[in-house]
């Protein structure tokens, strides 16, 4: 089985980013990471994204607010960042605490700074197959991994497990743009194992540790594991039970070291594009 490593894809994206930056005069583009509270998922993404920006020669600043900040206070802070000419792009970690209306923020964010595709303007572009906006970085990272590995998507049966707005739904549209035939699964799907086994490319984005074992994988399928979970020993693991899948799959991404590393590289690529480079 081929192991599809994220580091190689990230290195390729780094070259593209640096080639673009050479033609760019002035201060490096700046990423604003907005975090409310101390959610460990948010903090590990923030940490990974910060390291990646520094490694790529880009600027990054975290804006951290207490978990009990009011809706009005958060919106005032958000507006300042959104309008700051020194801020090139924004990553707002989600979900936000309940008292803050996330829908309002989606409508407020400047679509030109919305690097993770949460604005309705950018979502509409993803659905239209118009790549002038920003797709959610994780969804785009899946496409980057497949392209870098030269795995064709045209005409392929693709099954995606998960229908969130950050992975499953936008990825289904990016896959359709690549001419794949897409099936989306969720908790109400009947015969999940059979639907997954039928796929030539299986994407796991359910957020359930090691849920997809060998019974869910067809012979010679390509398996892309988006999940980032913690297993019973406290170690990072994906949604795919890697050990049982190895004999059947043609190729698979590991966790850690797979899609996660590419997500932050796509974020850097979006930041440079937001700078107009
Ligand atoms: N690699 C990366 O950079 C990133 C990784 N992630 C990881 O990806 C995973 C998914 O994230 P996200 O999309 O935000 O998660 P959500 O919890 O928002 O969505 C999970 C989706 O999976 C479906 N699902 C959950 N359990 C099952 C099940 N047993 N059978 C079938 N479908 C199921 C849910 O269905 P329903 O809609 O019916 O509830 C839902 O649509 C997480 O592990 C997350 O940590 C997320 C972002 C970036
Ligand atoms: N607007 C928004 N978009 C997100 O995509 C988003 C979010 N909010 N909120 C939190 C969740 C969780 N999430 C993680 C991503 C990477 C790691 C992670 O551990 N990454 C490691 C690498 C892991 C690997 O190598 O596979 C790193 O970047 O170094 C964890 C969690 C993103 N999310």
Automatic annotation (TrEMBL):
Residues holding NADP(+): 162-164, 228
Residue ranges annotated for the Tetrahydrofolate dehydrogenase/cyclohydrolase catalytic domain, each copy included: 4-116
Entry keyword Secreted: no
SUPFAM superfamilies assigned: Aminoacid dehydrogenase-like, N-terminal domain, NAD(P)-binding Rossmann-fold domains
Span of domain Tetrahydrofolate dehydrogenase/cyclohydrolase NAD(P)-binding: 136-275
Keywords noted in UniProt: Amino-acid biosynthesis, Histidine biosynthesis, Hydrolase, Methionine biosynthesis, Multifunctional enzyme, NADP, One-carbon metabolism, Oxidoreductase, Purine biosynthesis
UniProt-listed Pfam families: THF_DHG_CYH, THF_DHG_CYH_C
EC number: 1.5.1.5, 3.5.4.9
Database matches in CDD domains: NAD_bind_m-THF_DH_Cyclohyd
Annotated Gene3D superfamilies: Leucine Dehydrogenase, chain A, domain 1 (3.40.50.10860), NAD(P)-binding Rossmann-like Domain (3.40.50.720)
Pathway assignment: One-carbon metabolism; tetrahydrofolate interconversion
Keyword Amino-acid biosynthesis: yes
Substrates-to-products reaction catalysed: (6R)-5,10-methenyltetrahydrofolate + H2O = (6R)-10-formyltetrahydrofolate + H(+); (6R)-5,10-methylene-5,6,7,8-tetrahydrofolate + NADP(+) = (6R)-5,10-methenyltetrahydrofolate + NADPH
Quaternary structure note: Homodimer.
Protein function: Catalyzes the oxidation of 5,10-methylenetetrahydrofolate to 5,10-methenyltetrahydrofolate and then the hydrolysis of 5,10-methenyltetrahydrofolate to 10-formyltetrahydrofolate.
Family: Belongs to the tetrahydrofolate dehydrogenase/cyclohydrolase family.
Protein name: Bifunctional protein FolD
Species annotation: Ventrimonas faecis
């Amino acid at each position: 089985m081929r192991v599809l490593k994220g580091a190689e894809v990230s290195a390729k994206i780094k070259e593209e980013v640096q080639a673009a930056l050479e033609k760019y005069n002035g201060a490096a583009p700046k990423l604003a990471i907005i975090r409310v509270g101390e959610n460990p998922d948010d903090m590990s993404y923030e940490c990974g994204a910060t390291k990646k920006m520094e490694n790529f020669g880009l600027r990054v600043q975290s804006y951290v607010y207490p978990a009990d900040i009011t809706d009005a206070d958060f919106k005032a802070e958000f507006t300042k960042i959104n309008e700051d000419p020194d801020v090139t792009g924004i990553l707002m970690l989600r979900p936000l605490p309940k008292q803050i209306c996330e829908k309002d923020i989606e409508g407020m964010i400047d679509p030109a700074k919305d690097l993770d595709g949460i604005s309705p303007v950018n979502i509409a572009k993803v659905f239209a197959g118009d790549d002038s906006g920003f797709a959610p970085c994780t969804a785009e990272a899946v496409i980057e991994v497949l392209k870098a590995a030269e795995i064709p998507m045209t005409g392929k049966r693709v099954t995606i497990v998960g229908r969130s707005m950050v992975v499953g739904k936008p990825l289904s549209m990016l896959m359709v743009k690549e001419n794949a035939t897409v099936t989306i699964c969720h908790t109400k799907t009947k015969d999940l194992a059979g639907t997954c086994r039928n796929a030539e490319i299986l994407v796991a984005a359910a957020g359930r540790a090691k849920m997809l074992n060998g019974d869910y994988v067809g012979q010679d399928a390509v398996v892309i594991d988006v999940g980032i979970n913690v297993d019973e020993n406290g170690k990072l693991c994906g949604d795919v039970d890697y050990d049982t899948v190895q004999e059947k799959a043609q190729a698979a991404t590991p966790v850690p070291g797979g899609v996660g590393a590419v997500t932050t590289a796509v974020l850097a690529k979006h930041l440079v594009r937001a700078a107009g480079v």
